[in-house]
Inverse folding.
């Protein structure tokens, strides 16, 4: 908002000119989101402890998790809250890519909040049904992709890493493809969020990578130099990504092992949805499989485990998702977490490196 309020006065007060620059507003968003989420998080944890709104631990999980019972959850409330506060100041609300990401993030935030509310506050451990969640998630993406194609913000073409120009035109299937990417990302992050800091680490590396890609895609000269599609106004997603990084760092301040707070579905579903939407808006849906490789691996470990058990009555992993498999192999929790972070950093570097291999 400040961008809309202050920039017109930049002729009188030259320093307001700074608000025009995406780099300035991204740095400001990152720093402000970090401070706001650290401060807000402190009081949020105190409030949740006082109200005894803590995590219910399922018996069938790893033994080591039983001591986590009662840990406050729904930290996603102050993660997304910090992001929205900062984006109100630094965001460009005339950018359709920015508004679309805000719409999906908010929609999934509401879904996750309702699920957590039922599970944590109403002690109804099942929360919203898996089918109900999927209907809500796909409905959100169909609305988003319809608007983006109808108002010609995006075409229905598919772009692949290492390949110059579009690989093919998905036509009407594009809307379903967008759904798979965003809903898949949201649920993969949700599954990954099973150890202290395990999800927020790759969320930060993915947001950083997608922020760089969004800046390049929104810049005419850079996008043509790198042979990537130019998406007008997608540079504003760099500001959005910066707010995710800042709020994520602030959350990690408390979620690092041993966690004082979990993010809850309100955090994992909305942040996963935000990342998937930025990947779609910058035409990096396939590259996102590399960027979010940890999330993809976690989700596939569950699919492989369930399919194997259903058809062979045998498990492939000691327990899925795969982070539990390593826990049950005897890896201490912090070791699993940091090794997954190391892999996500390498995947982020690899993804950016592919820009030069077209
Ligand atoms: C999301 N939620 C964590 C916390 C977090 C189909 C099946 C694979 C589904 C999956 C499942 O239920 N996933 C739900 C994962 C839970 O975390 C809460 O949920 C929020 C995220 N949505 O913010 O509020 C537990 O994770 C631990 N945790 C931490 N630190 C954190 O920072 O330690 C979370 C965040 C928390 C806490 O213990 O209670 C979760 O794991 O449920 N099911 C599973 O993941 C289960 N796997 C399983 O059943 N595998 C089977 C089949 C179905 C594949 C198999 O291997 O044969 C495991 N998870 C649990 N118990 N809790 C194992 C059983």
């Amino acid at each position: 908002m400040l961008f809309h309020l202050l920039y017109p006065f930049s002729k009188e007060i030259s320093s307001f000119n700074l608000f025009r620059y995406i780099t300035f507003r991204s740095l400001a968003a990152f720093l402000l989101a970090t401070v706001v989420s650290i401060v807000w998080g402190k009081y949020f944890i105190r409030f949740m402890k006082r109200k005894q709104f803590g995590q219910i631990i399922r018996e069938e999980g790893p033994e080591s998790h039983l001591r986590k019972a009662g840990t406050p959850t729904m930290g996603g409330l102050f993660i997304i809250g910090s992001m929205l506060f900062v984006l109100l100041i630094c965001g460009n609300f005339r950018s359709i890519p920015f508004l679309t990401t805000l719409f999906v993030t908010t929609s999934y935030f509401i879904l996750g909040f309702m699920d957590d509310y039922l599970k944590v506050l109403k002690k109804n451990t099942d929360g919203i049904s898996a089918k109900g969640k999927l209907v809500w998630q796909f409905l959100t993406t169909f609305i988003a992709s319809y608007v983006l194609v109808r108002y010609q913000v995006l075409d229905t073409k598919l772009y692949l890493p290492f390949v110059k120009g579009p690989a093919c035109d998905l036509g009407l299937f594009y809307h379903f493809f967008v759904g798979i990417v965003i809903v898949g990302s949201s649920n993969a992050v949700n599954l990954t969020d099973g150890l202290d800091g395990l999800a927020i680490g790759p969320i930060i590396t993915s947001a950083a990578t997608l922020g760089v890609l969004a800046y390049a895609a929104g810049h005419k000269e850079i996008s043509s130099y790198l042979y990537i599609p130019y998406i007008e106004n997608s540079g504003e997603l760099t500001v959005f990504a910066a707010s995710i990084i800042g709020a994520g760092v602030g959350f990690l301040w408390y979620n690092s092992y041993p966690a004082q707070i979990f993010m809850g579905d309100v955090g994992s579903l909305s942040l996963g949805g935000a990342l998937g939407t930025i990947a779609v808006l910058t035409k990096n849906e396939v590259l996102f499989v590399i960027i979010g490789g940890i999330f993809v691996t976690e989700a596939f470990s569950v699919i492989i485990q369930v399919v194997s058990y259903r058809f062979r009555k045998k498990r492939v992993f000691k327990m899925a998702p795969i982070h539990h498999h390593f826990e049950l192999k005897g890896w201490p929790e912090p070791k699993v977490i940091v090794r997954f972070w190391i892999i996500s950093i390498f995947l982020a570097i690899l993804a950016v490196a592919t820009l030069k291999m077209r």
Notes: The longest helix spans residues 22-51.
